[in-house]
Amino acid sequence: MFIKVLLVVVYIAVMLAIGIINRHKANTVENFVLGGRAINPWMAAFSYGTAYFSGVIFVGNGGQFGWRFGTASIWIGLFGCVILATLLPWVILGRRTQAFSRKLKSTTMADYFGFRFNSKGLRLAVALIIFVFLIPYTSSIYNGLSTLFEICYGIPFYWCIIGVALLTGVYVVLGGYMASSKTDFIQGCVMVAGILALIFTLFGKNGGFKAVTTALANVPGEVPGQYASMFGTDFTTIMLMSVMVGLGGWCMPQTIHKYYVVKNEQSFKIGTIVSTLFALVVGAGCYIIGGFFDRLYDMPEFYANGAIKYDYIIPNIINTLGDFMVGFVMILVLAASMSTLASLVISSSSTVTLDLVGQLDKNMDEKKKMLWIRALSVVFVVLSAALSVKRPMFISQLLSLAWGVIGGAFIGPFTWSLYFKKTSKAACWVCFIFGVGFVVLNNLVFNWMPSTNASGFVMIMSLIIAPIVSLIVPAKDTERVDELFTCIKE
Known about the structure:
By secondary structure, the protein is an all-alpha fold. The chain is 79% helix and 0% strand.
């Protein structure tokens, strides 16, 4: 226990020190939220990866999908995390997002919509959707981390949630985005090293790749060898989950935010390569661990109603390893979770301050804005931590709710608005209503389809709905939009 605790204590001390050292660099809104738009490509790439990958992927998705689909779940990592969530958005969205954000002088996703479509109503709607539905997303991260602490350290999960909430709140409130980007780089290195170490340790402990796949092929299932099959028995569902996992990264405010802060246009090439390689190791690695070892170790726990505690599968596997490896993996998950939490806190608090409170108080000065951002950072952390204590859903269900709503609402109008001049305000409203309405009603009331499938479905529909509605009800301010699009050539 001494070794396990020491590793975590040292890591926490380093994170707090970075927040304290960088506190003087977070004295303006521009610096606190965007790091002065001067983040180098390596830090931006790692910041993107650590904002996207969290303990949810490792504990929640790795546990549930690895158990359900075996090795076929690796496609979610390869196609969903690497191709859809990382490579394509950097190529398709990155440069244009940066160009438009600088042209419009926007600092949040909400004010991008407001400026791009010349609509205060859209700006307010986006701010509300982001603030409300980032809370269950953040809650899912707390749940994943606290479950692992509870099993590996014997600490009640609610104390873990309180501790992580305090730690994240302190270094974000003190140091802002500059501190967050520096800790993201360190946390990204920890995540890469931790995933690789865990993969090699698990395969080595179980006789190597051939022995593991042979044993997995002998695990009983509906079809002989299904858990060792690369396509499984339900490849359609796997692809829908890949879409949900992948497309969600296109329009989450904390990932879009990373394009805003890249130092210059030339940095995007390096950022694209580095972030894709990072996703290959971390994203695919999480699903390799779940896909190959969930069924092999066969260590599920059950709720009173007989349902499997998917969120406990990966922690139970980790707890079979030596003390040093348990402590190292704890730092891995702590790094993955804290980096995402920091990005979510900054995105949410800045959005509410600048796009809700700031619209009510037009005369708000810089000092008052900073006070609001820091105060709302604390409020956001407290609300999401409070929801986590209740554990209302599986981790992956909380993630699906948040990603489904935000993805279904934003991905269509945001993506098309970067390329298609006729993208209209009406298209935004239709996508907002459809995305929020369908996912909330499906997940909380009617259960038309599994929550992960519903999330993938609304994202695809959003990409289809946005251009169709825009052709029926096109944008009218063509001259303003034409002038805006000059930033692409510039």
